[in-house]
Amino acid sequence: MTTAQTPAPMSAPQPVAELSADEARRIVLRAQGFLGAPDRRGGVRGVLRHLGQVQLDTISVLARSHELIPYARLGAVGRPAVEEAYWSGGHAFEYWSHAACVLPIEEWPLFAFRRRAYRDRPHWGHQLSPGAYRKVIDQLRAEGPRTATELGGAKNKGEWWDWSDTKIAVERALMHGEVVVVERRGWKRVYDLAERAVPDALLGDGLDDAECVRRLVRQAGEALGVGTRSDIADYHRLKKEQFDAVVADSGLVPVTVAGWGKPAWADPAALAEEPRGRHRTTLLSPFDSLIWERPRTERIFGFTHRLEAYVPKPKRVHGYFAMPVLSGGRLVGRVDPAREGRTLVARQVSAEGPKAVPAIARALREAASWVGCDAVRVERMDPPELAAPLTAALTA
Hints:
38% of the residues lie in helices and 18% in strands. The chain is built from 17 helices and 15 strands. The relative contact order is 0.13.
C-alpha cells in the first residue's frame, strides 16, 4: 500500500491510497470474515452484525444459504444454533436489502427510507382486496404472531405466485413496516406487529432518507472493506445516485486499486493495518456477499461464477448449485453438491489446476461432516485426470 502521488482529475475524489490488486483482495477477505481468526465469541449473531445482512433463499441442497454464510466463516457451527441466532430473542428481522435478507434488529431504523418509499408508490403484481389489509392488522393485534397459513392461508389454488388476499395484505404490511418478521417456524415466516416486536428505542422512522442511506453506505463499505461505487451501492440495493449524494459524508475514503479501472472507496480502519492471519478453506454459497456480484468477483478473484439453478439443465456448465471453493484467499474450484442418505455427493467438481485438489478435498470433508454425512462420492471431475488424485485426497 503506497500513498497516492498522481493527482486525481478535478471531477474525481482525491485518493488517499493506492492499493495493489492483491492488497485489495486481502482487505476484502478480512472485511468479509475469511482472513484472520473468526470471532467465535460473537458466533452467528456476530457474523450477521458484521456483514449487516445475510441473504435468504429457498434453495436447499447442502443446506440453505443463510446457514452456509456463518458456516463458511466459523466452521462447523451447529445448524440449530444458526436458526436460533436468527429467529429467537428478537435479535434480527427480515426485510428487502440486497434481496430478501435477515438483518440485525439494530438496522431497523436504517430502512425507514425504504419503508416510506414502499408506502408512497403504486404496487405491482398483486391486487389488494378492500379491507384485507386492515383485517390482517386487526387479527395480528388480537391473536399475536401468526404465519400466513394461520392468518387464513398463503395461496389460492393456482400457480405458486397466486397469493391469497391474506398473504398479499400481510406482505404489503411487511413492506410498509407495520408488520415485521423476527421468527420462522419450519421455514415459514411468522408475522407480528412491528410495534410489539421491534424495541421501542428502534421503532420509529425518525431518520430522514439521506441519513438512512449515509449509514447504509458506511455499513456496506465496512462490510466490503473496499469497493467501487457499484459494489457499495449494490450491497443494500441503493441507487448509484443515492450513493453519490452521501459518500462524501459517509466516512469512507477514496482509493485507487490497480487493475480495477474505476474509482473506489475503503473503510479507513481496513487501511490502518496489514491484513494478516489464517485463511479459511470452505465451500461458498452462491448468495454469499463475498461473491454475489459477478463483476466484483471477476475483478477481485479473476473467477467467473454464475448461479445455474435457473438455467435449463442441458445448458449448465458447472451444475445446479455450484459452490465456489475458497482456499488460501483464492477461488480454486467449484462443487455442485447433493446428499444421498449419509453420503455427500459431488455431482460435478471443477478444479483450477492440480494444486487445488487438496483444498477441494478438505472443503468436501468438512462440509460432509457438518451436514451429518460420513462419506463423499465424486460423480464427475473437470478435468477428468484429476478424479483419481481427488479420490485419493478424500480417502487419505
